[in-house]
Amino acid sequence: MSQKLKILERDPQIRKNDFEQVSAGYTNCEMLAESKRCLQCKKPTCISGCPVEVNIPGFIKHLCENNPKKAIEILNQKNNLPAVCGRVCPQENQCEKMCVLAKKGESISIGNLERYAADIIVKNDIDDDDDEVIEKNNIKVAVIGSGPAGLTCGGDLLKMGYDVTIYESLHDTGGVLRYGIPEFRLPKKILNKEIDKLKKMGMKIILNTLVGRTKTVQELIDNGYKAIFVAVGAGLPVFLGIPGENLNHIYCSNEFLVRVNLMRAFNFPDYDTPVHRGKHVVVVGGGNTGMDSARTAIRLGAETVKLIYRRSESEMPARKEERIHAREEGVEFIPLTNPVRFIGDERKFVRAVECIKMELGEYNNSGRRHPNEIAGSNYIIETDMVILALGLHPNPILPTLTKGLNTDDRGYLLIDDNYMTSIRGVFAGGDIVGGSTVIEAMGMGKRAAKAIIKYLGQE
Amino acid sequence: MYKIVKKNEIGLRVHSYEIYAPEVAKSAKAGQFVILRIDDKGERIPLTISGVSCQESLVRIIFQEIGKSTSQLALLNEGDYIKDFAGPLGHPAEVKKYGTVVAVAGGVGAAEVLPIIKGFKKIGNKIVTILGARNKDLIILEDELKQESDTLFFVTNDGTYGTKGIVTDVLKDVMDKENINLVYTIGPIQMMKSVAELTKGKCIKTIASLNPIMLDGTGMCGACRVTVDGKIKFACVDGPEFDAHTLQWAELVSRQNLFKNLEKISLDNFRCNGNCKCHKN
User: Fold this and answer.
1) ipTM
2) Contact A251 B220 (CB under 8 A)
3) Same-domain check for residues A55 and A187
4) Best to test chain A binding among B220, B236, B254, B266 (most A CBs inside 10 Å)
5) Vertex A47, ends A46 and A51: CA angle to 5°?
6) From the CA of B94, how many Å to the nearest CA of chain A?
7) A4, A117, A200, A322: most buried by Cβ count inside 10 Å?
């Protein structure tokens, strides 16, 4: 069988009305069938595609034997967040791309198998606590930010016996996993379970603490933390810099998604935080955040959602799967188009976007073709809500308030080959050093943990 | 969880809370704010820090019952707990020696301006404070403001206390009589806008401390964006203080109306559930 076992997905016409997942995941039978496709290569290539080097054939072997508990043990050796990764990793560009079977037909569905192993533990409440007692070394390490980089680094240090405290500026944990990724892609119950597991292992998490403001990096050092890992994520949203951008009902994707995901505004007024439910929504940007925003707008009752992107669809950074899901749910893609200005009504609420058509020119430094405006091709799209998903600049709070912490000219923290910043003992990883995906951040967290252990061993 | 240690009603539906928050108390400076959340379903509410008692680890906040969340907050009592209390956020006020500083505050802006004038006075500025309110019942902190001001004027719209009129009437008089080095304004946007328009004509440096719609308060969401000198700035990380003469006031006014309808729904819903004081007893 050279074909992947397709995962059963819910009817788009039904799922677009709720925040439940697109798919319930493999059934036991499906899992067994799919895991048996794995060739159990002697020299597996898939592992080289995984930023955190999960022993992929190893965990699949246990699944083959219908032993998810053993499978999760293997996964947890390298990955503190398997249920998250099984869902949001771009496997098609990583492990699955490197799978030997991909050359002959279709790769193993590694992501779905990983998800199965992680979910069944949660669903059946299987006790997957490591019986191995961790020997504590009482060396204090602080992690700043509880997103994917921070949780991974902190988790790895914890397993090695370090006394880890995570400081989080928001009122809840998870960073982008909670405020950014919608419920239908990553149920918060799953996220909570994975974080609870780290807490049970002894991870301390202190919320409502904006390091830089509430306490400084120097204070952390003075409080006895021997190493600090900065994983504060990317902070400031990017705007287009075109007229009308501050009209009402023009949101950046972060605001829209934080309202809905973190603050549960879809349950307004039961929950206090409001969100505008646009009828004719325009989303700008072709990344995963653009897709998440568009699909969330549909779930909040939008009649039309148009997604504008300045290049062609094949250049969109969003995962193929997300693009397919978005389209199935009714998102209309308008590629090769860029907004030039927003037009408001007399009360300063947005009512239209003036766009211009684009064509692709020469290849530029980023390896993509540069989009150029087609003169005179301007046209108007009527709208009552615009969501800008254009990416983020690094948050300046911690770097500017920490003396001696150097950044590049764009504001990203500078690190050496060992993830150490310009301050000795202070390390950094994830989006604040220029990462862009959850798994990239996790990979950096993992490698930083190794570097921190090495550093503390030498001290 | 953060305990409400002291509670006072200092004006009509205006409350002063002192919250036990050692980490915030230790780091807070004049002009900074906190974001609090009452409970698990609560929204993130930005409130300016009105004072700190370092020894007791207390942070003072003052708010007026306006919408759903402030009405709900007002129902809490001494000994009750608030779920989340994060801060201090934003840049501290830039407290420098100017000479004569005129502080123009409106409504609960009195609470927000108090630590500012305290700071300015301490380093030797002459302080003229103008406090405006709709009526006498909304005049707050009279004694405390008096203590930190060399001169203190009251203005009420209905004339029930101090001068009848609006703050700019008194500001005009002060501008005629005094050589002003700085005007610092905090309060309702329309009031700050009028102050800025008045002082711009006379080229008097004017700082406004803004309180726009915010969500995370750490620069992440862009909800609090304002245009200053033609550029987008975020009140939470770049502010809350801005040059009042280069700020685009009209935009701020319209952005403040963003959720008016939804805010009303939320408040009505809250009242219907018997949560408002007038339905209690």
Assistant:
1) 0.93
2) no
3) no
4) B220
5) 115
6) 16
7) A117
